[in-house]
Write a structure and sequence with these properties.
Structural class: alpha/beta
Radius of gyration: 31 Å
Strand order of the largest sheet: 6-8-10-12-16-17
Shape: elongated
Largest sheet: 6 strands, mixed
């Protein structure tokens, strides 16, 4: 298990020239250009595209794919990807970067990160994502080492995607949060917020003096704040809580805390400094590995090791097509399924499930949301979810309901007729079917509905709907005593009554000559709330 960082390569040699680069960029931004800002990543569903052949061979000779984040000033923050860096790894690194650059309302330095992102764009900040350390050394010792970019390296061999085998079983030390933050810190924070950088320096020195941060031998003093603050971040977000060395430390003993509770109690100055820029939870928009099968937990479970870190996630989507599940935590989760049929359960917070298409292309019925477009979102069964986010709108999640009420009397079949439904409670699906059984075989019947429930004797049974009512048309029971009617929401008799969220009371009336008396009877009632 590789749980130790590689402290001798955290920031690129180019960072030593940052001051000169920043001054040059400020006076003439064109001087900082070495990679084009206008590479189009919208042609790919995940935003990872082939590196265009028009890009300088210094880059195309080493990297084959590309993605980016565009800063508010229009400049790109680049991600250059070598062949063994999977798209999943690249997307995760990009979304971790986006998380670091997302404003944190109310924080001292993170409330507006515009200048941080803009400077990174001006300086041609680039995450150079190599296959492994050997590939990085070979590239950086060649022309790439002299390229006019602010480079921070990361290796595929030290990258872990949520729900992948290494994530679930902590078999690989994940350096993504560390290396991406080094780039944000070195190319952005240090120069945009010098006072904040000095607070990190002060916390670093205090931690060293107190004997709970031990910089690696040979690490230059100027580099210590970069390494120290990421120790706090990694531990705070749960990435060392599984205690790989069984000694309650992290980073191979460099930092003497390994859980959020421990670092909050033992290094409050470090946590305070970190929270001046970053949020309480790891709220990056993340995607689970497509290979995952099973149910992924965001809620903490002491018997499931990976939940020491997943407990701090808020935003996760499944990928691929396996019929897997997600269980949220008590935070405000944003969850999403994949192309398979998924079971998604929120937690104690206000939870949203995300879908790729517009609302009109989904059928919402009960606790299920079904995609009518194949190979996209499948059918998701939801629990403890408050909102549905489609590509064109976000709506409250109320899949509708059908509740029996009132009473019915035994008819000549020997039992009381009960009304039920099949199909969807989504009005747009227009596939609602009403059923009543058992009724006398081959006898005529009528389903009807109204706005107000009732319960008064009528014929041989009970009238469960008050006047006025709408009759849906005559139908005949089968030889087995089953009365069915396919409802057409567009029928003139209905006249547009059935709308999203509307509530109507339904009942079946049927002839029953064999019973005598009034020679007709009724089912019980069914109160339907149509889906929002």
């Amino acid at each position: 298990m590789n749980d130790r960082a590689s402290p001798d390569r955290k920031l690129s040699p180019g960072s030593l020239l940052l001051t000169a680069c920043a001054l040059a960029a400020a006076s003439d931004p064109a001087l900082a250009q070495s990679l084009p800002d206008d590479i189009d990543i919208t042609t790919s569903p995940n935003g990872v595209v082939p590196l265009p052949p028009t890009v300088d061979p210094v880059f195309t000779n080493i990297f084959d794919r590309y993605t980016k984040i565009t800063a508010p000033n229009g400049q790109a923050i680049h991600f250059l990807l070598q062949s063994q860096v999977t798209d999943e790894m690249a997307v995760r690194a990009r979304e971790v970067m986006r998380f670091y650059l997302t404003d944190v309302p109310g924080s001292q330095y993170g409330a507006d990160k515009t200048d941080v992102a803009n400077l990174m764009g001006l300086l041609e900040a680039a995450l150079v994502y190599f296959n492994n350390e050997a590939a990085a050394n070979q590239a950086m010792n060649g022309p790439l080492g002299n390229a006019d970019i602010f480079a921070q390296d990361l290796y595929a061999t030290e990258s872990v995607v949520e729900a992948s085998w290494p994530y679930l079983f902590n078999t690989v030390r994940d350096a993504t949060l560390e290396e991406v933050f080094h780039l944000v810190h070195g190319a952005g924070i240090r120069w945009t917020f010098p006072a904040y950088h000095q607070e990190i320096v002060a916390a670093t020195n205090a931690a060293i003096a107190a004997g709970f941060y031990f910089p690696p031998p040979g690490l230059p003093p100027w580099d210590r704040p970069f390494e120290y603050i990421i120790s706090v971040i990694d531990v705070y977000y749960g990435f060392w809580a599984h205690d790989p060395d069984n000694d309650g430390t992290s980073f191979g003993g460099e930092y003497t805390f390994n859980t959020r509770a421990a670092v909050e109690a033992g290094d409050p100055q470090g946590v305070t400094v970190m929270r001046k820029f970053l949020p309480e939870h790891f709220s990056a928009s993340l995607t689970a590995a497509a290979s995952f099968q099973g149910t992924f937990l965001l809620a903490f479970d002491g018997g499931v090791e990976y939940t020491h870190k997943s407990r701090y996630l808020t935003d996760l989507r499944l990928w691929g097509s396996h019929p897997s599940g997600l269980v949220g935590n008590d935070l405000e989760n944003v969850l999403g399924g994949n192309a398979g049929d998924n079971a998604i359960a929120g937690g104690g917070g206000t939870d949203t499930v995300v879908f790729q298409g517009p609302r009109a292309e989904y059928v919402v019925s009960g606790n299920q949301v079904a995609d009518t477009v194949g190979g996209r979102d499948g059918t998701d069964t939801l629990d403890a979810v408050e909102w549905l986010e489609f590509s064109d709108q976000t709506v409250p999640f109320d899949g509708g309901s059908a509740v029996s009420y009132c009473t019915s009397s035994p008819n000549s079949s020997g039992a009381a007729a009960l009304i039920s439904h099949s199909g969807s409670l989504d009005v747009s699906a227009n596939d609602l079917v009403l059923h009543a059984t058992p009724v006398p075989p081959n006898q005529p019947g009528i389903f009807f509905y109204g706005a107000t429930p009732n319960q008064v004797p009528f014929g041989n049974g009970t009238l469960c709907v008050s006047q006025p009512v709408v009759r849906l048309g005559v139908t005949f029971a089968s030889g087995l005593g089953e009365l069915d009617f396919e409802v057409d929401n567009q029928a003139p008799a209905i006249g547009g009554d059935f709308t999203a969220g509307s509530v109507w009371n339904f009942q079946a009336w049927f002839r029953d000559p064999a019973a005598g008396d009034a020679t007709y009877d009724l089912s019980d009632g069914l109160r339907i709330t149509f889906a929002l």
